[in-house]
Design a protein that fits this description.
Length: 199
């Protein structure tokens, strides 16, 4: 996966989303809080070998989440239909020595979740991560991913999921896969219990 991402020529300076950016930066901005390089892996962008790896990751993720295949899942990287889940585009990120992504949440703040009409509910992450509120640090192991839930079923972000990618000691790579559900048509996140495939 790393070789394919690097060979694609699409690794670029990482940005922070609106949920983690101050008004001074604006949404999806470059910031000293995140100093890595990365890319979004969409079908075909890094070749068929990468597409196969992503498909396998998605299949394993659904199994881990105890989520059925079929109509419950939308197309990866595309906004799901109401009451569907989808994977966002996979992210591959490279941190060189001294680079980091300071404390941030993967869940969207309420106003952004409402305007998106969905909230991130599960994150699969491969890479060293420190959960600041929990006093927990997780080290990566080959072939293993960390699963955590950045939001509650009602769509509100879980502040305990605040986490940091600490300064890299040498070059390290991180992959991240977010899973998003979308409420039924016409519903608002603040008044809807979202479907939960991992019960």
């Amino acid at each position: 996966m790393v070789r394919a991402a690097e060979a694609s020529g699409r690794m670029a300076g990482s940005r922070i989303g609106a949920g983690n950016a101050s008004a001074a930066y604006g949404p999806n901005a470059a910031s000293a809080r995140r100093t890595s390089r990365g890319m979004m892996v969409t079908p075909g962008v890094a070749g068929p070998a990468m597409d196969g790896v992503v498909s396998e990751l998605h299949a394993r993720g659904k199994k881990l989440l105890r989520a059925a295949e079929g109509a419950a899942w939308g197309i990866s990287g595309k906004l799901p239909r109401p009451r569907q889940y989808c994977y966002e585009a996979l992210q591959v990120t490279r941190y060189d020595a001294g680079q980091h992504f300071l404390a941030h949440e993967d869940g969207f703040p309420p106003h952004l979740a409402a305007s998106n009409a969905f909230q991130r509910h599960a994150t699969l992450l491969g890479g060293a991560t420190r959960f600041d509120q929990l006093g927990l640090a997780v080290r990566p192991r080959k072939g293993k991913l960390l699963l955590f839930f950045p939001a509650f079923a009602d769509g509100s972000a879980d502040p305990r999921s605040l986490h940091t990618a600490c300064d890299a000691v040498d070059t390290k790579y991180v992959t991240q896969q977010d899973t998003d559900p979308r409420p039924r048509a016409g519903a608002t996140l603040s008044h809807t219990m979202l479907p939960n495939p991992w019960r």
